[in-house]
């Protein structure tokens, strides 16, 4: 790889890292070509982009970002073969990995970056797959906000029926 190609690759990675808040570092080194193609297809279906990278280029791209992003916690995971899974949904790569690993032992999760939080190790897949997406969290908040209003309305409706029943009983008693 020439210097110009390396510089272009680093710039491409910088662009990717600056446009996503979530990415996973994986090791898919022992997968066959057929398995890698199947995994890439599954990633594509779920909106996850897989990119095989050289560790030194990925680290150089990450080093160009401010320290508060906490990318330096990932440097230790950039050893051995690395494929990066870029995504817009925090839990989707973990779900894809879990689904694919029903048939295969790899890819192994080296690390995950979720909005400045770093998860290291393959044992993190279960907890990462249970993370809620932004859409799911918004749905939960809306449901919580609607819940008291629904309770008040149903209480008023049932209370109205109770009052009318009580009035009716009093009316019948008086007659």
TrEMBL record:
GO terms for cellular component: ribonucleoprotein complex; ribosome. GO terms for biological process: translation. This is Large ribosomal subunit protein uL10. Keywords: Ribonucleoprotein, Ribosomal protein, RNA-binding, rRNA-binding. It comes from Flavilitoribacter nigricans (strain ATCC 23147 / DSM 23189 / NBRC 102662 / NCIMB 1420 / SS-2). GO terms for molecular function: large ribosomal subunit rRNA binding. Forms part of the ribosomal stalk, playing a central role in the interaction of the ribosome with GTP-bound translation factors. Belongs to the universal ribosomal protein uL10 family. SUPFAM superfamilies: Ribosomal protein L10-like. The keyword Ribonucleoprotein applies. The keyword Transmembrane does not apply.
